[in-house]
Amino acid sequence: MSQSQVWRTHRQYAATAARFTADRWRKEAERRSALRAERKPLVRDARRALATARAVDPEGVTSLRHRAERELRTAKRRVPDPMWLFASKTAAALGAAGYVWLPQVSVRVWVWSAVAVVAAVTAFAVWVAVRERDTTGLKPTAEESALLKRLQPQHWRDHAEQRGLAGTLTGRPRLTEAGIVCAVRLDGTWTATKLRGAEDHIRNLLGARTSLRMQVKAGKQGGWAELILRTRSAADGDDLTWTPERRSLGIDTVTGEQVTVPLGERLLIAGRSGAGKSVASRPLLYDASEGATNALVIIDLKRVEGRLWDHRARVASTPHEVIDVTDELETEMLDRLSILPKGQDTWTPTPDRPRITVVVDEGAEVMTAADGVPYEVEAGEGKTRTVKRSALPALESLARMGRAACIDLWWMTQKPTINDGIPKQIAPQIGVSICLAVRTPAEARVVLGEDAQAKGWNADELPVPGVALIRDGKRKPDPVKVRYMDKSVVIALPDRTPWSRSTAPTVEAAGAPTLTLVKDTAPATVPATDGAAARVLKAIETADEPVRQKDLVTLTGLSKGAVSKAVKALTASGAVVRTRDGSLTATRGDESAAA
Ligand SMILES: Nc1ncnc2c1ncn2[C@@H]1O[C@H](COP(=O)(O)OP(=O)(O)OP(=O)(O)O)[C@@H](O)[C@H]1O
Question: Which atom of ligand 1 is nearest to 481's Cα?
Fold first, then answer.
């Protein structure tokens, strides 16, 4: 054996001995503090009893007084010293004994004692070194230590009956990365479901705080249940900074799994101010703006978040821009739907006509500001007139029909109340809800469903910022710790050409059949890709008499904006003319429509 091997072996022995000693010390300290917690109330009671006895018998002549004094002495004796006091007393006693006895000790004993002391000091030093290097072990917090103690079978057995849990007995509790897990043995009168119903009794027995999340599920064997106390998060210790390599939305605090939200869903992102909506949306906005077949449109009247993305996304930040972009999106959607090949349910995104994710940041503000916007429209004979426009109808139709056209609406709001923060026409269309901390259970219900509270989706109890519940029909109400993507990271992302319908190519590029309206005399071609124009033209052609523009909204089901744009295009192309009273009529006979 080489010298280094000998040294290593010694070190291992010393480390084992040190760990053993530390373990014993910890256990003894825990035992003592548990006994103290249990017995100190008895001392208080005995003191009170003695005070009463003194009042009754100030002279101390009756047995009542003597018994009370005896009981107080016994109660005090039964409370053990805390470990530090016990160790100090022992050390002091040994010191005193040594002072008296050591002068008589022979030199040989001195030498061996010195060797023992050196060995003990070395062992202690090694233990400290080993302990500091061991960062992987889980160390219980004060709360966890208390719960672990009360989950011990002995403590449970002593208190189960008085807490209405007679017939149940805990196994050995374990501390895991997601909290404390403990098996519970059930006698014939109990089931896991019944134990779940007795959650309050368990909480009382354990002295657990009300906000501590507790789960009871069926155990791995019949006759057993599993009790989980979520004292910690499975995401603890993970680096939650977003990077292109760590692209998930966040980490499930219960299972520790990466959580992602795929594109192609109508999304609601809600949470009170400062809950972390903008930060939570960034990894999603990255996905929505990345790749050749994805394009991002942001409607942000606050001009804060949208500005960060304007090198990768089309951003509308004034009411006028909002009307323009929603018109364009609606036209694009109708266009895609009108040329969708038979038998195909959804548009296939291509680099030319990509999936478009439309994000409405602070929906409540958009609904107020982009309503009644003064907008100039064609009034015939080269004149224009100003009408009041609203972006809401176009947004509603995007929410209703956009999915098939691969145009997905994401609604973000800090006021998750129907009509105030989320339009009532849009709310039912939401497929996936991401809910950060909200103010009230009522808000949580609007975002996560009427059954939210009953099923444990308690978004009003979430911590802030950056913790979310995601309801997509598959996930459980496990909180998700959201990755942090800093503004500087967004700004540094590579540029992408923002989407615009004027840059969108012709329909042929998408491999779909072409709708062409042909007129003999130029300029006779209605924009070939414009489904809204085709609808409007058809409505005018099939009407018995000239139609007023406002009636076209009802006839076609399009928004005012889309009708206005279509009429403008049709009158410019000559396919439609405006009569003196402002009604519209088709220049019929010359045109043919071919699909
Ligand atoms: N996942 C996260 N991790 C760490 N810190 C976060 C996280 N999310 C948010 N924060 C912190 O909270 C602050 C507020 O976040 P954010 O701006 O996203 O909130 P918000 O809900 O969008 O607020 P508002 O509605 O007022 O705009 C951030 O500046 C950041 O410091």
Answer: 1
Q: Which residues contact 552 (CB under 8 A, 6 or more apart)?
A: 536, 539, 540, 558, 563, 567, 584
The answer to whether the beta carbons of residues 275 and 436 sit under 8 Å apart is yes
Is 262-491 a domain of CATH 1.10.287.70? no
User: Which of 96-100, 253-257, 530-534 tops mean pLDDT?
Assistant: 96-100
Instruction: Give 588's contacts (C-beta < 8 A, 6+ positions apart).
Output: 541
Mind giving me the DSSP string for 536-583? HHHHHHHSSS-B-HHHHHHHH---HHHHHHHHHHHHHHTSEEE-TTS-
Give residue 280 CA to ligand 1 midpoint distance, Å: 8
What tokens appear for 520 in the block? 């003999």
Start and end residues for every CATH 1.10.10.10 domain found in the chain: 515-594
197 is in an annotated binding site: no
CATH 3.30.40.10 is the classification of domain 515-594:
no
Cβ distance 471 to 463 under 8 Å? no
CA-482 nearest atom, ligand 1: 1
**467 CA: nearest ligand 1 atom:** 1
Q: Is residue 456 annotated as involved in ligand binding?
A: no
**ipTM of model:** 0.96
The fold adopted by the segment(s) 142-230 is Threonyl-tRNA Synthetase; Chain A, domain 2 (3.30.980)
- CATH 3.30.980 intervals, the chain: 142-230
Tens-digit pLDDT profile for residues 414-428: 988 877 788 888 888
Helix/strand/coil percent split, the chain, to 5: 45, 20, 35
Looking at the CA of residue 275, tell me the nearest atom of ligand 1.
Answer: 21
**275 belongs to an annotated ligand binding site:** yes
Pocket of ligand 1 (CB under 6 A): 271, 273-279, 414, 465-466, 482, 484
Cα separation of 490 and 295, whole Å?
Answer: 16
What are the residue ranges of CATH 3.40.50.300 in the chain?
262-491
Q: What angle (nearest 5°) sits at the alpha carbon of residue 544, between those of residues 540 and 548? A: 50
Rg of the chain (C-alpha set): 37
* Ligand 1: centre distance to CA 273 (Å): 8
Alpha-carbon torsion (584, 587, 589, 591), positive or negative: negative
| Three-state helix/strand/coil letters over 13-31 | HHHHHHHHHHHHHHHHHHH
213-267 confidence digits (pLDDT tens): 888 888 888 889 999 898 887 776 678 899 888 889 999 988 878 899 999 999 9
pLDDT in tens, 309-351: 999 999 999 999 999 999 899 989 988 988 888 888 899 999 9
What is the SS3 assignment for 318? coil
Q: Residue 278, annotated ligand binder?
A: yes
**Smallest Cα–Cα separation from 163: which of 204, 127, 112?**
204
Alpha helix stretches (DSSP H) within 57-82 = 63-78
Instruction: Compute the distance from residue 466 Cα to the ligand 1 centre, in Å.
Output: 7
